Amino acid sequence: MRHVSRPPSPRPLSRAVPLLIMTVAIAAASACASAPRRAGAAADADSAAMRAAMLHEDDVARRSWGLGDDSTEPPRPPLPAGSDTNDAAAYVVYALGAARRSPREASRAFYWASRLDPSRADALYGRFAMLGELVGGGYHIVDHRARYDPGLSPAASRHIDSLMYFALVRDPFLNDRLSYEPPPTDSFYLKRRLKDPLFAGMLAYSEGHFREAAAKLGEALRKRPNSITLRVGRAHALYYVAQYDSAIAELSRAIATIETHEQEDIGRVYISKEMFHYAIGMIDARLGELDSARLEYQRAIAENLGFYMAHARLAGVDLVSGDTATALVELRTAAEIQPDDPALRYYLGYTLLQAGRVDDAAAELREALRLDRHWAAPHEALGRALAARGDTTGAAAEYTEYLAHAPRSAALADDVRARLAALGRGGSTGSRE
What we know:
Elements (H helix, E strand, L loop, with lengths): L21 H10 L5 E2 L8 H11 L1 H5 L24 H11 L4 H14 L4 H15 L4 E3 L2 E3 L3 E2 L1 H17 L16 H7 L3 H10 L3 H14 L4 H13 L3 H19 L11 H13 L3 H14 L4 H13 L3 H14 L4 H13 L3 H14 L5 H12 L3 H14 L7 H10 L11
Antiparallel strand pairs: 1-4, 2-3
C-alpha cells in the first residue's frame, strides 16, 4: 500500500483552466440541486425563448437519460460527408468545431454523442458546457459563498448540473477543451501577464503544455499555498504527464487544506472531499495499487454515502482481485443509488454475464437499452446472454441490432458477424439517422 503524506481558500480561477471547477462541483451537486440557477451572461437578449426551446429539446434527457421517441429528441446535426453517424467520436469532433460559432448545434452534437455512447465523459460535459452557454451559466462562487441569480427552474438546474456530475464521476481528470478562452493578442499585455506564474501556468495548461503548467502552478502555489483550485490544477497537469505520485501528493494536500479550514469556514460553502479521494483512488488503480485504491474509494463513500460511482469503482477493484461476488454486491448497490445510468446498468449486466448469471444479465442489459436504445454495446452482450439461454432467434435479433447501431470501427463487428453466420443469418453494419 502506498503511504502518501497528507500535509499540505478555495477560489476558482478563470475559465481558462479546464475543469478546475472540480473543487466545488461535487459539493455543489447537493447544494445546487434545489437552488435556482443564474441566467448566463452569454445568453442573448431574447434568451427566455432560447432557454425554453433548448430545455424543451433536451427535456427527454432531463426525465432520464433519453427515454422517448425520436420526435422528442433534438435533431442530429449534419456531419461532414462520409462521417459515421453511429460513431460518438464523430459527433464530439463536430461539436468541438461548432462550439464557438453555434453552441446550440454543438449541444445537439454532444447530446447524440452521449446517446451513442453514454460512458463518454467528454460528451456529457460538452452538453453541460453548451447548455450553460445557451440557457444559463449556473451557480458561481463569490468570497467562498454560492451565489444564485434567478433564471432556470430548479428542475432545469438539476438537469444541467447533473451533466457535469455524471461527466466527472466518469473521469475526474477529464481535460475540458471547451472552456479555453484565448488571451488577448496584445503583445505588451501578454508579456506583462506572462511574468505572473499563475497566468503563465493557466495559459500553458489551457494550451496542453502540462509539464510547463505544473512548474508554473507550483511557483504560484508558493505564494498561495492554501489555494485548493491551484492544487487541483497542478494535480491534473501532473496526471497528464504521468507523474502520478506527485498528482496524488497535490490532491492529498488539497484534502488537508480543506480539513484545516473546515472549522474556520463555518457558514461558507462546504467543499466535499469525496472527489479528491475518488480521483486518488483512480490513480492508485491505474498503478495497480489495489489496496490503496480500495481505501480511497471507501473514503469517498464515507464522505458521501450516495456516491454511486465509487461503489462501481470498488467493484472494478474486486473484479481485478478475483472477487466477483463482492463486485456484484457493489454494482447492485450502485444501481440502487443511481438506477438511471445506462453505463452502470450495462457494467452490471456485463459482469453478471461473465459470472454466468445469464437471466439476471439479460434483465440488466435490457434496462440499459431501455435507458439508451441508441447504444450498441448492450445489444452485443444481450445477444450473448440470449444465445447462452438457447434463444437463438433473440440472439440473432440483438446481434443484428448491434451491427445496425455500432460504428464502422467497432472492434467486435467482425466477431458478431461470425456469430450471426453461425446462427444461419447474415449481418451488415449501417449508420442510422
